[in-house]
């Protein structure tokens, strides 16, 4: 590669190196000036790429996170970058980097629980404060430290690795010399992030580098060792994920590889604009037909990063270009799919103008127009439609373009599609219409357009849900208002006989529930098992909606076909708040179902300990039996709910009470508990260790059958027996001898 090509991009590489190696004390103004002058003005790096680079740099330079956050905020403010655009382009950044995006502005803040406190071991290591580490070691054994040191993307569990990660050489060598810390394979990997030469050399004395070492060196722009790394036999470039280079924009690495073999950077280098200089300078050496292991070619990579100069350069090679413009990767995506998928209008227009197949579909049957609408790229959508894109195309799950327009409330496109579309009530998957989709996403205007254009307002999906049911599920109050205004049946039921009010209660959609009530919905309507909306609210701990229903006249003691009322459902859900609400408004705390089971029975079945104790303190009888002879204690012990059993025993329940099969809590402990904790609890409350069930079997006999050896000894030690053998010992003692 010529010195001229290298020199042209030297400023770019220096700027990126600096961006990834910012010190906490660096000047915010100087860094912003460098970004705006070098990257934005001189090299035309897109705002989106710079934002990604800033966030990505935090991963490898965590000690400077607070300065990176200021850079991010200032850069977004300078260039009027809206929060909605960031959400659209980078939906996963916030979760993956443990950052929080302010709801009202383009502003990120570090999660306070992650950045180490100043007087912590992590902080000392981060800033190589050896004296504090030495002082810390006086009262703490550094050999036994086993904790998780959290940084974005990394959960480092050893302090030696942490010192390598930060390049803290003083602490690193202190730990090696004075404590029993070993260099594992993780240590050299982290050392290429810390980029301390002495630490790296020490690590390589003990471990050969692997592909992760190379990945970390590239992504952190620590390029000094890269040429040496790729010479190691332990580095396998044939399996290396070169897409990491694209994220980091590490042009230096590309140059190093290109100098050795230019085809080693083909085709992925096309995602970095500055690679065009390499392509031009080594034109005669390049295998333009080479594909990446996932089937992508040069055009895929150039399109996915909006590298227009590279696309134009490649288009000059007509035979190659026309042969690859519609090539599909392993996921059946063309270069145009990639341009649209990343919201790149310029690349999309260029490929369309050059003859890209505008009706190509991916592996899910999504067309080019489908991609454009899904990403709200209306300009591209109209270009596609104007040159004959198929507006009746559907994806593999039968989702039409009308569904997509309704989802994103794309009114202009929706009206055009309706005008030229044959069936406004077309369904996909489980019978879902565009109106269902509009209701789900609260696309108010789209819903009105669809209704006025003839959409069937009470159309049902496979499960009998209408658009009103869907609006209730997602609390799309405004869309529900439109539906009701235009005549939606507010009492229509689905296949389970549930009204929209049932659904609103289930999902705690209070606003929509209130609208339905004001619109005259039957507040006490029952579904197929006799549950009304208040039962649904109680069963799902929808406290706010429950109170609204009660105040609006819902029958709080209404019973299902099996006699369950709202209080029964609340007993199962560990929600004291719901129980208190129901009792406050007159729920019958002593209500029984048709099986004579009380709320305490329900709490016991679900191990709702706090709720159970609340009921007991309110006067619910602990010793109460169902028609089948089951008490709350017996239900809890059969399910292995030790804490609930303990609660009932504390309030005086009989430890030796029996279920219909004659089995006690101790029998249940042997038969159903995974360990001996329940048995020991029962014994501590005076359980009869020799109690027999209806089959004449004692807990010990079941122990022997199930080979619960440890529990056998426990029972014997507390007096368990069955009969005396001729040798003078009881057969339990014989069994104990067998175990020994």
From TrEMBL:
<dbReference type="InterPro" id="IPR002110">
    <property type="entry name" value="Ankyrin_rpt"/>
</dbReference>
<dbReference type="Pfam" id="PF12796">
    <property type="entry name" value="Ank_2"/>
</dbReference>
<dbReference type="InterPro" id="IPR036770">
    <property type="entry name" value="Ankyrin_rpt-contain_sf"/>
</dbReference>
<keyword id="KW-0040">ANK repeat</keyword>
<dbReference type="Pfam" id="PF13857">
    <property type="entry name" value="Ank_5"/>
</dbReference>
<feature type="repeat" description="ANK">
    <location>
        <begin position="397"/>
        <end position="429"/>
    </location>
</feature>
<feature type="repeat" description="ANK">
    <location>
        <begin position="628"/>
        <end position="660"/>
    </location>
</feature>
<protein>
    <submittedName>
        <fullName>Ankyrin repeat protein, putative</fullName>
    </submittedName>
</protein>
<feature type="repeat" description="ANK">
    <location>
        <begin position="430"/>
        <end position="462"/>
    </location>
</feature>
<feature type="repeat" description="ANK">
    <location>
        <begin position="529"/>
        <end position="561"/>
    </location>
</feature>
<feature type="repeat" description="ANK">
    <location>
        <begin position="661"/>
        <end position="694"/>
    </location>
</feature>
<dbReference type="Pfam" id="PF00023">
    <property type="entry name" value="Ank"/>
</dbReference>
<feature type="repeat" description="ANK">
    <location>
        <begin position="364"/>
        <end position="396"/>
    </location>
</feature>
<dbReference type="InterPro" id="IPR050663">
    <property type="entry name" value="Ankyrin-SOCS_Box"/>
</dbReference>
<feature type="repeat" description="ANK">
    <location>
        <begin position="496"/>
        <end position="528"/>
    </location>
</feature>
<feature type="domain" description="DUF3447">
    <location>
        <begin position="179"/>
        <end position="253"/>
    </location>
</feature>
<keyword id="KW-0677">Repeat</keyword>
<dbReference type="InterPro" id="IPR020683">
    <property type="entry name" value="DUF3447"/>
</dbReference>
<feature type="repeat" description="ANK">
    <location>
        <begin position="331"/>
        <end position="363"/>
    </location>
</feature>
<feature type="repeat" description="ANK">
    <location>
        <begin position="463"/>
        <end position="495"/>
    </location>
</feature>
<feature type="repeat" description="ANK">
    <location>
        <begin position="562"/>
        <end position="594"/>
    </location>
</feature>
<dbReference type="Pfam" id="PF11929">
    <property type="entry name" value="DUF3447"/>
</dbReference>
